[in-house]
UniProtKB/TrEMBL annotation:
Stretches the record annotates as Disordered: 1-30
Keywords: DNA-directed RNA polymerase, Sigma factor, Transcription, Transcription regulation
GO CC, any one term: DNA-directed RNA polymerase complex
Domain SnoaL-like: 228-317
InterPro entries reported in the protein's UniProt record: ECF_Sigma-70_Domain, NTF2-like_dom_sf, RNA_pol_sigma-70_dom, RNA_pol_sigma-G_actinobac, RNA_pol_sigma70_r2, RNA_pol_sigma70_r4_t2, RNA_pol_sigma_r2, RNA_pol_sigma_r3/r4-like
Family in the record: Belongs to the sigma-70 factor family. ECF subfamily.
Protein name as catalogued: DNA-directed RNA polymerase sigma-70 factor
Domain RNA polymerase sigma-70 region: 38-101
PANTHER family: ECF RNA POLYMERASE SIGMA FACTOR SIGJ (PTHR30173:SF36), SIGMA 19 FACTOR (PTHR30173)
SUPFAM superfamilies from the UniProt entry: NTF2-like, Sigma2 domain of RNA polymerase sigma factors, Sigma3 and sigma4 domains of RNA polymerase sigma factors
One Pfam family it belongs to: Sigma70_r2
Highest rank taxon of the organism: Bacteria
Summary of subunit composition and partner proteins: Interacts transiently with the RNA polymerase catalytic core formed by RpoA, RpoB, RpoC and RpoZ (2 alpha, 1 beta, 1 beta' and 1 omega subunit) to form the RNA polymerase holoenzyme that can initiate transcription.
Length: 340
C-alpha cells in the first residue's frame, strides 16, 4: 500500500529563499493559502490516526493554528509539507495519550440475535465513525495513489489501525500509505531508522493477523448494478429482493449501539421485526470511507442513519448504519429533512 509523497508545493521554501539564503516570510493571506493546500491530505492522515472525522478536523485545525503561530521559526530546512505532518503527528499523539481505542461493534462483542435488546447507546468516543470521501481524498491525482488512499480509509482498515500503538500507527501510515522513507519518518518522530523499521515490522505483523485488513474490491459496473438493486429493494422494503443482494454472512451494525448481527437470515429477520420502522425509507447516495454510502431518511422525512455499504463476491457483505444524525448529516452536507 503506497501513495506518492510528491507535491508541487514542497518546493515553496526553495522558491522563497532570499539571495542571501534568508527565508522570505510570506504575507498572511499567502501563508493561509499555502497551508490550506494540505488540509485534505492532513485530514485523511489524522482520520487514520484517530478514527473520527470530527477529531481529525479538530486536529488539522490545531495543526494549522500551530503552523501559523510558529511559521516565523520555520527556516525551510524541510519542506512545508513535512513540517505540517510533524505538527499533525504531535497533535494526534497528544490526543491519543490515555484514550481508549475506537472500534466497531464487531470488535467489542460476539454477534447478537434478533431477540437481543438493543440496549443503551455507548459514547461517541467508543466508535470509529464514517467520513465523507471529499474530506479525506484528493479530487484528482494519480489513479494508483487514489486507489491506495481510498483503501486506507475503509472502516475495516481504520479499525485495524486502531489496534496499533499510536507511534506504530503513525509509522505504518507514513511508511506504507504515504511512502515516506524510514529516514524521513525517523526525523519526524525524533527517532532512529532502526526504531522505525522495528515499529513497522511489529505493525505489519499486527495487521497481517487481522482479516479485516484485506483489500476491498474496486467498484465496477456489476457492483454499481448491485447497489441499484439494493436501493430498490430497501426503498420498496422488499425482503425477498433484499435477501437476493445480501451475502450469506452479511453483517448489520448500528453505532452507537453495541448490538450487531451476522448472517443474512438474522439481518432480514431484524428488518421484519425491530427494524420495521425503516419501511418507506429513502436513500440518498453518498461516498464515505472510500465506499458507497447513503443518507437514510425514514418515511416521515426525518434522518435516520448514514449507511456505509461493503461489497465482496458480488454481494453486500456489511451494512454499517451510523445513527448520530445530528452530527453526521451536516458533516455529509445533508438536510435534516428529506426534500425528495
Amino acid at each position: 500500500m503506497k501513495q506518492s509523497t510528491t507535491s508541487a508545493h514542497d518546493t515553496a521554501a526553495v522558491r522563497d529563499a532570499a539571495p542571501d539564503g534568508a527565508q522570505r516570510q510570506p504575507a498572511p493571506g499567502e501563508l493561509a493559502d499555502r497551508l490550506e493546500v494540505y488540509r485534505t491530505e492532513l485530514t485523511g492522515y489524522c482520520y487514520r490516526m484517530l478514527g473520527s472525522a470530527f477529531e481529525a478536523e479538530d486536529a488539522v485545525q490545531e495543526t494549522m493554528v500551530r503552523a501559523w503561530r510558529s511559521h516565523d521559526r520555520f527556516e525551510g530546512r524541510a519542506s512545508l509539507r513535512s513540517w505540517l505532518y510533524r505538527i499533525a503527528t504531535n497533535v494526534c499523539l497528544d490526543l491519543l495519550k490515555g484514550s481508549r481505542r475506537r472500534a466497531r461493534p464487531m470488535d467489542l462483542a460476539s454477534p447478537s440475535s434478533v431477540d437481543t435488546p438493543i440496549g443503551t447507546g455507548l459514547p461517541e468516543t467508543t466508535w470509529i465513525g464514517p467520513v465523507p470521501d471529499e474530506r479525506v481524498l484528493a479530487r484528482a491525482g494519480d489513479p494508483a495513489d487514489t486507489a491506495v488512499a481510498r483503501e486506507s480509509v475503509r472502516l475495516a482498515f481504520v479499525s485495524a489501525l486502531q489496534r496499533l500503538a499510536p507511534r506504530q500507527r503513525a509509522v505504518l501510515i507514513l511508511r506504507e500509505v504515504l511512502s515516506w522513507s524510514a529516514s524521513e519518518v525517523a526525523e519526524l518522530l525524533g527517532s532512529s531508522v532502526a526504531s522505525v523499521n522495528s515499529a513497522l515490522q511489529r505493525a505489519r505483523a499486527t495487521l497481517a493477523a487481522s482479516a479485516d485488513a484485506a483489500p476491498a474490491e474496486p467498484l465496477d459496473e456489476a457492483q454499481q448494478a448491485l447497489l441499484n438493486r439494493y436501493v430498490d429493494a430497501f426503498e420498496r422494503f422488499d425482503m425477498a429482493a433484499l435477501t437476493a443482494v445480501l451475502h450469506e454472512d452479511s453483517t448489520l451494525s448500528m453505532p452507537p449501539y453495541e448490538l450487531w448481527l451476522r448472517g443474512r437470515a438474522d439481518v432480514i429477520a431484524w428488518m421484519r421485526g425491530p427494524g420495521c420502522g425503516c419501511e418507506g425509507s429513502r436513500l440518498v447516495p453518498l461516498s464515505a470511507n472510500g465506499m458507497p454510502a447513503f443518507g437514510q431518511y425514514r418515511a416521515d422525512g426525518k434522518p435516520w442513519a448514514i449507511q456505509v455499504v461493503e461489497i465482496a463476491g458480488g454481494r453486500i457483505t456489511a451494512l454499517n448504519s451510523f445513527l448520530d444524525t445530528e452530527r453526521l448529516f451536516p458533516l455529509f452536507g445533508l438536510p435534516m429533512r428529506y426534500e425528495g
